[in-house]
Batch of 3 targets.
Target 1
Amino acid sequence: GDSVTQMEGPVTLSEEAFLTINCTYTATGYPSLFWYVQYPGEGLQLLLKATKADDKGSNKGFEATYRKETTSFHLEKGSVQVSDSAVYFCALSRQGNFGNEKLTFGTGTRLTIIP
Amino acid sequence: DGGITQSPKYLFRKEGQNVTLSCEQNLNHDAMYWYRQDPGQGLRLIYYSQIVNDFQKGDIAEGYSVSREKKESFPLTVTSAQKNPTAFYLCASSPPGGEQFFGPGTRLTVL
């Protein structure tokens, strides 16, 4: 079945450092790939997505490229801020009946940015 | 404002009691989902519903039940058969072929 493996945390960085959170997936066919962010005590928010190979998703300075050859979707940001402290989830989706997508999540990576 | 609301934010239950978590959306989405989140395990799908009066089991449906009588509402009941119900519960909805939008969650604690 489908699965998502992401970098275990917690990850602690200094402000303005470069961030990479690794994500790889196992799936047949061509799933869509997502990064969601969860701030303390809240639900998940979609950060970015990519729907086909070589697509790059980007938002709020974060980027991730859909690499089918390495089955990866690594999250990167050039200069992190304290406000980026959160838990980050990598996920893939498949279209089920009626065109609705079912998500498979990784275990999440907790990121803490130190001033 | 359009969105998903979950209530209550915190819920306490005694062992052996059933409890119902509310999820309402005004986004006019057909599909709705319930997830359970445990530390270090990511999100796991409990139940999902693609249209009114229809729902399917997810990966961890045992000890849970749902109903979908209205498009806007997808309540989740945690029954006494659920052996370890303490967790953070997240509801989501999506339009056909679109991304999932999440509610703020309900934290359930069994005393």
Target 2
Amino acid sequence: EAGVAQSPRYKIIEKRQSVAFWCNPISGHATLYWYQQILGQGPKLLIQFQNNGVVDDSQLPKDRFSAERLKGVDSTLKIQPAKLEDSAVYLCASSLDGQRYGYTFGSGTRLTVV
Amino acid sequence: AQSVTQPDIHITVSEGASLELRCNYSYGATPYLFWYVQSPGQGLQLLLKYFSGDTLVQGIKGFEAEFKRSQSSFNLRKPSVHWSDAAEYFCAVGANNMLTFGGGTRLMVKP
């Protein structure tokens, strides 16, 4: 089966600019996650979708970050305006039933804010 | 809320030596536990997972992990390390259909 697809792989922007990341999960996976991984740290959950509804966005900085999941399939994560501390790898993951089958991660988008 | 601690930030072992990476978790109920590996510039690859049953879990690439409820631990082991095992290793606990990660352990392998 195809894996979780993410684009772009790399992005460099200046602070205060906006940026968007795209994720296409594994077909049939109802749950989709966005994680932020700052260099040298473990991934931190930003937002979790179940189909096209938000399950948990408690750690999403809502003043600048937004996310949507179109028709319960693809998802887009946006940052506007970006700050230097947003430099990180943004990982998308999906699961059919994470507790039983685990979670599949994409290769991530590496964002550098200068 | 669940949490994961990986006490060792960096570990260096010689090629061919045995390896043990430590992981401690905090969660009120029976945890679902995972180990992932991340090579530079790559995504996270699942090594193994524990849901229930036998507390010794076998994974890919010759790795295994043992769940010890009394110690709240899920340590990762490999009897003989290869140079290609150099990477970052993350322990994670699954609860409420989401993963919470530890801070990771960076493994370096000496020739």
Target 3
Amino acid sequence: QVQLQESGPGLVKPSETLSLTCTVSGGSISYYYWSWIRQPPGKGLEWIGYIYYIGSTNYNPSLKSRVTISVDTSKNQFSLKLSSVTAADTAVYYCARGRNPDVWGKGTTVTVSS
Amino acid sequence: EIVMTQSPGTLSVSPGERATLSCRASQSVGSNLAWYQQKPGQAPRLLIYGASTRATGLPARFSGSGSGTEFTLTISSLQSEDFAVYYCQQYNNWRELTFGGGTKVEIK
């Protein structure tokens, strides 16, 4: 069955760029949408954006100026970059399959702190 | 932006009782509504999509209903493993997906 695994630094300094990768195993990245969603400590879910396997994207308007999502079909991976981070970007970051996701990664905690 | 409002914020229910969770959209989302369950320290789990279609393997005690702006998730007889936070999400406006704030179902 399809599994997703987030990877990347758990600590990012303010004003720097957060970079995460999601590796898809047990299935192909093709023919699906792939999402990034985050959850600040003790709060609800926030959609960040998604990418179709051919590379078309949609981003949360509130984050659009800072977000880039890309896909590498040869590696069965997709990635998130969030620039100019602040403490408000501290959250658990999830990668997931679909626009109403049916498969989720376990999540990775990213803390923004100097 | 389509705002999703869930009520109540917290629902206290005894095991074996029925739980009814509500989700309201600020404008019509048709049937493009999903429900998720999240337990502490875990990723969300898709329960319902298309407002009323159960995800693969979901017990029949979970049911979803509604369309347009008013939606309901019903758990007919709460089991111990059902105590969790539940989120609704609209995907009708695919340019901007939005989640509700969540309903915590706790043991009474």
